[in-house]
Known about the structure:
Layout: H1 20-23, E1 41-47, H2 51-63, E2 70-73, E3 89-90, H3 98-105, H4 107-131, E4 138-146, H5 149-164, H6 170-173, E5 177-180, H7 181-188, E6 195-203, H8 206-219, E7 223-225, E8 232-235, E9 241-245, E10 248-257, E11 275-286, E12 297-300, E13 303-307, E14 313-316, H9 328-331, H10 342-348, H11 351-355, E15 364-376, E16 383-386, E17 395-399, H12 409-420, H13 439-444, H14 448-456
Parallel strand pairs: 1-2, 1-10, 2-7, 4-12, 10-17
Antiparallel strand pairs: 3-6, 4-6, 5-6, 8-9, 9-10, 11-14, 11-15, 12-13, 13-14, 16-17
Amino acid sequence: MTAPKSRLSFLPSPGSTTPYWLAETEQPLAKHRTTCDLPKEVDVLIIGSGYSGTSVAFNLLVEEQYEGSVLMLEARTTCSGATGRNGGHFRSYYNLRSHEFETKYGKETAADLASFEHYESNRIKKIVKKYGIDCDLKEKESIQTLDHDAMTSKGLKDYYAFVSNPFIPAEVKKVVKVYWAEEAAQVSDHPGTEMAVVVPTLSLWPYKLISGLLQKALDVGLNLQTYTPVTYVDPLDDGRTKVSTPRGEVIAKKVVFATNGYTKAILPEFTTKIVPVKGVVTHMKHIEGQPKTLKNNYYLANDYINVRDDGSVVVGGGHDTYSTLPLAEIMYNNTDDSEYPYATKDYFHNYLAKNFKDLKHKVFVNDYTWTGVMGYTSDEFPLVGELGIYGRPNNYIVGGFSGHGMPRIWSSGKYISDLIIDKPESDITHIPSTFKIDENRMAESKFEFIEKLDAEDKQNPRAFKL
């Protein structure tokens, strides 16, 4: 019988697979340390240098011109977690899951979720333009293909829930286009497509986005410390927090946990609330001299496709190759991003030729395949807010984005920065109510999928214990 994993085993692993985004660009902030030593005391301490932590730091220091001291601690290199390992696409849900959200939360909340993500893309476009962030940001279209009766039935329910919702603005609805039967197959270039839904999306270079934003924050006072994993976080009687690292301790007036899939390593109360789940992504380079092929991004079943301007393609998914034992043990409740199943790598071999008729005879080489650690909640909404009711005053969390962070993180981080500076409630950045941490969500958290895997694992019954 395998012993339960220790808490610290959920910290970022020392080694990792190499993502395209980190290998194919300069990383001036990779090993950055603003000061040789850690400060003894700070006003705000942010744990994590990904999109969430960067949003908090940038909005505090650059947008709000916060005058207090801000320290960011990163366990490995800058932006080496999920943000630097995603697919480089920014796809809002729009119609996706609309029927489910309406059934569970009502029409108004479902509308808020769809509208929030639509306008979130506009917000990040404005920030990139305003501050001149060079991150290869491109506006594109994403095509969702539905290939069989079950998928089409669900797609129809979602689409009609979306278009019939009176609380969704007309300007949001009008950007969603639907095609059927032969026209759907033609538009998508995907044989067998019965229904195709086309929505606007963004493509970007995630590391360049984060490093560009962080540099702006560094210019106005951010202290960034890489290779400084946090091992313990202890509330003090005076309302401050002692943060321990291998390099020493820091006393902080306020602490932000932007730790996503690694949260349980330092917040044991989140052991069953945010579970690490790994995903696999590959970069496919076309043979030199081939003409460019796909121009749109795609959402095929559980896979997503991001087409780069140079004709190369980034694909994430392959979930079915590791959703059952024994390979599931590599991917679920596991923060080691140095390994992934070879079955998934095989799945991505000749992927484009298998899925697009016009690419049947084109040759693509998978030059990078990597994995990253996401943080999943049981309802797949992030946990965002203050942790005072859990015995951690002046502590905040922004995590658990469940593999759908790009259209949700920016405003969530800004919401936290607003709480930190005590903005009036009427001026606090809006986020959907389903994002906010509360006692009910914490109490109801239950991962049926992992419990099912644990029950099925007769040989190693503790492998999936949360």
